[in-house]
Design a protein that fits this description.
- This protein is of the alpha/beta class and 108 residues long.
- The chain has three helices and five strands; from the N terminus they run βαβββααβ.
- The protein has one domain.
- Helix content is 22%, strand content 11%.
- Strands 3-4-5 form a three-stranded parallel β-sheet, with no helix packed on it.
- α1 links the parallel β1 and β2.
Length: 108
């Protein structure tokens, strides 16, 4: 599993944000099989990012934007999400078990 520093992750997400605005600028991120345990990912936009096998255990993901890609993440154990993420989280095959370990907060 690949490990990245918070600084590397911040740069990956900044480049991805540029790519989302204009695919000729920036780079589409691929975080598959990346260990993001305990990463601070507040307001991160994961739209269009490959998250297959990504580990989000203990990560802080308040305000983060996801799509169906969160279903493919390997671990969300004890991660913190905003209520907006629930629409995608409940589609996970392990949601019945994981919901008791995940913290859901209201951003308002």
């Amino acid at each position: 599993m690949r490990k990245v520093t918070q600084e590397e992750l911040d740069q990956i997400l900044a480049d991805h944000a540029l790519w989302l605005e204009d695919d000729s600028a920036g780079v589409q991120a691929n975080l598959s099989h990346t260990n993001l345990t305990a990463a601070k990912l507040i307001n991160a936009n994961f739209t269009g990012i490959n998250l297959t096998g990504t580990r989000f255990a203990y990560a802080i993901l308040t305000g983060a934007k996801f799509g169906l890609n969160i279903i493919d993440a390997a671990s969300i154990y004890r991660a913190t999400f905003s209520k907006d993420a629930l629409i995608w989280l409940i589609l996970r095959g392990d949601w019945g078990w994981a919901k008791d370990t995940v913290k859901i907060v209201d951003d308002n």
